[in-house]
Amino acid sequence: MSAELGFVHRFEPGSSPTTLLLLHGTGGNEHSLIELARHLAPAANLLSPRGKVLENGAPRFFRRLALGVFDEADLKAQAADLARFVGEAAKRYGFDAGRVYALGYSNGANMAAALMLLHPEALAGGVLLRPVLPLKPSTLPNLSTKAAFLAAGRRDPWAPIERVEALADWLERAGAAVELRWQEAGHELHSEELEAAREWLARHLEG
Question: Which residues form a coiled coil (predicted)?
Fold first, then answer.
């Protein structure tokens, strides 16, 4: 674990040329997704930062003004800082900055979506677990070489169906290859969708 490069983070090298950027949910930290990431992509490098925004002591990647209402100015600032961190970490740890995929859950999935929409150079794509559209970018990015796997719950009170579909629509209109998988579930994750995510990653990480 290190606090260098502006984020408390954890880096674990792997045997793959691809790196997973692990973005935890509210209240998580740099350790929260390590075990899941190793299950989903055993050979990948893992770069896992801790969100720098605190909500009642719980780490997040950007502020929200109320449940489901995001502070867009803070989101843009935090996304820019995270994109910078990924680029500097690539130089520090020697991984390919062009082969970074996000693995994000909840707040972290929304940050991954923001990175794709605002700083597409930072990610080749990602697995976004329980995401919503975090903001509408002022200009449509070119995501023609990017891919995203979205895992959503039809009964998720934190990620309404229309906001999930809005994210998929924005990504597709920007040219990304999007796979949206629905689960009869709430905000919790299920083994079937994680297996689908593992298969998606296997197809993309070594491609």
Answer: none
